[in-house]
Amino acid sequence: MKFLLSLDYELFFGSQTGSSQHCLIEPVAALLRQLERTGLKLSFFVDAVFLMRLRQEGRKFPALQAEYDKIRRHLGELKQQGHDVQLHIHPHWLDSHFDGACWRITTKRYTLHDFPLSEREDIVRLCKQELVNIAGDSIFAFRGGGWCIQPFEQIADALQAENVWLESTVFYQGKSEDRQRNYDFSAAPDLDYYRFATDPVSADPNGSFVEVPIGSFRVNPLFFWRLAWAKKFGGKQYRSFGDGSAMVADKSYYVTRLTQYTNSVISIDGLKAGLLASAYQQTQQNGSRELFHVMGHPKALTPYSIDRLHEFLRLHSFDYITFQDLACLKPAVSDFGTQ
Question: Is the whole-model pTM more than 0.85?
């Protein structure tokens, strides 16, 4: 089976964003030190709007310019080491500002859909160019911020215009009715990848986009009680590298996960890394699956999660891939841009 690990390279979006040093650079370094002998290469979905805002605000604040330069060097080094850089967009950064001491975050316009059509096209264009300037013209995959990509037809043209044809946000049976992070992937097929036209949960062999879903598995509500306990009482091994605070979801989001079985992304974030073995067993039960796609966030990594990933990889044999290895899935030129 092939193993794909994709990480959303981003800060926090709550009352405290945290620092690039603790949310990005240090956890990635810790992860790579542990995985050095495995040969695993990582795919980073980089929050390009954050980089744009760092560069823009850096004209007024030298500290932000220094932070931008550090991240630029970091991503360049990762690319040189064979890791992959792809497109991630959290557009609320466009409405947020730096006050000289910290970022003042507003998430009123949290998704691309919250912006007018002409602005969506500009955002995607500028974001891709930001990453091309750092990592080269090898960017063709996209992951929506907060898993918010629906309705996809409202952002499809903007992505197509920039030759972004691979989508990787969907996870099987995923659903959230939170007001800001609202998505419904209940109808998505349980496949390694598939083509689609305007709806990423509806396979279409003639579609001009390709969906590579994140791995998904069924989670017992008891896990989320253990997660709450570990965050409060678990000690340093369960403490994330990131020094920010997460967005607060609607109360119903937490109640659902604490009282019902739900589907979650297969992840190396925090305590979820301890579920890799059971998630892998669930994936293997679908005999047609050949890809084990795991995701995570550097900001949410913990000493425990890095150790659990290392142990999991030690006990299983995989062919490691990045999204660059999936470039062969691109629809023919005659298909791209047609519906």
Answer: yes
Q: Which amino acid, residue 59?
A: R
> Measured between alpha carbons, how far is 299 from 315 in angstroms, rounded to an integer?
26
Residue 147 DSSP class: G
d(CA 157, CA 339): 11
- Which residue range is the domain that position 224 belongs to? 9-329
In a domain, 294, yes or no: yes
pLDDT for position 207: 97
Q: In this predicted structure, what is the pLDDT of residue 339?
A: 36
- 39 lies in a domain? yes
Buried/exposed 94-123: b ≥16 CB within 10 Å, e otherwise = bbbebeeeebebebeebbbbbbeeeebbeb
CA dihedral angle for residue 310, residue 312, residue 318, residue 319, rounded to 10 degrees: -30
Report whether the peptide linkage leading into residue 151 is cis, meaning its omega lies within 30 degrees of zero.
yes
User: How many domains is the chain built from?
Assistant: 1
Among 41, 129, 72, 77, which residue's Cα sits nearest to residue 326? 41
Is 2 domain-assigned?
no
CA 90/CA 67 separation, integer angstroms = 18
Provide the pLDDT for residue 333. Answer: 57
Residue carrying structure tokens 């990592």: 135
Q: What is the dihedral of CA 135, 86, 112, 179, to 10 degrees?
A: -140
CA distance 157 to 138: 19
In a domain, 339, yes or no: no
We report the CATH number of the domain holding residue 190 as: 3.20.20
On the question of pLDDT at 234 being above 70, the answer is yes
